[in-house]
Amino acid sequence: MQLNVQTLIRFLEELAPKRLALEWDHVGLQLGSMQGIVNKIYVTLDVNAEALTEAIALGADFIITHHPFIFKPLTAIRTDQEKGRLIQQALQAGIRIYAAHTNLDLAFGGVNDVLAEQLGLQETKVLRVSEEEELLKLVVFVPQGHEHNVRNALSAAGAGWIGNYSHCSFYTTGTGTFMPGAAANPYLGEQGKLEKVTEVRLETILPAHLSKRVVQAMLKAHPYEEVAYDLYPLVNKGRAFGLGRVGYLQQSLVLSEFCHLVKEKLGVPFVRVTGDTDKEIHKVAVCGGSGSDLIAAAYYAGADVLVTGDLKYHEAQEAQVLGLAVIDAGHDGTERIIVPALCDYLQQQLTAAGYHNEIIASTINTTPWHLL
Question: Alpha-carbon distance 367 to 22, whole Å?
């Protein structure tokens, strides 16, 4: 089965919806057409000359990058300059480029969740909430005996989740009435005759952004020609999305020991640290990439340390005054863990859907820094 561009993007945006991206960001398909077939997928932290050369050599025709390939607006495409040359090379090779940036940072299963998991954090929560999921309640009336099929279809489409529990629903039984008209083709009853049927009122909860998919699944599974159902907006909110995560180590470590753990788990040669190296570390905040603006949030969350990148001099002093330790493991060091994780996610999703595309993790270290 051939994978088309729109299907691949749908899988990507189920993990990292574009609506989660911060206002200043640029995400989505940045180069190439939404039409056509995808054969081989290449996942990278950045698209630079080396990464593009590797992708072309491997025969990739779709690149997924965390950092946007086009970030600042282009006023010209000069093929005698770096950006224009890369655009030309990618187009000539038939490569599309898709960026998942801050939406992948905020997403569940995205950069910050992977970073927290890599460091062994438990009971993790969002550090700075930017939005909460809007929820709806779906009520549908189903002839008795069909409620389980409809409920399973709703659950498969993403309804019925409360926290870590799936297939959440409520049933009540009553009597439904209807009279099929002359043009009707009723599942039950006869044209022009009032029918009374034992029906189940099935209630469940769903994220608002999945409503179209859930309703379509419900209608497909429901035996009636015309389905009676209601959608109600809820005041209670669903999952919180936002930057950073905060959680607990399974076993406390002193800061110097935790620094060694960070280097080992993230595969970085060194870290910069501010704080007492003998300080006991139990509650940990993390933010992949540049997270120094979360120093105050980490402090008020009760974290002992913040693990992030791109820490500046005065920001380190701010943390020092608060008594919050900060470990700077580098921008790329705290984000490149998303590359293999994203490959694994896509492989699972595509395989489950019957696709057999090859997904390749970049081997290019795109950091601009060298140690001397």
Answer: 23
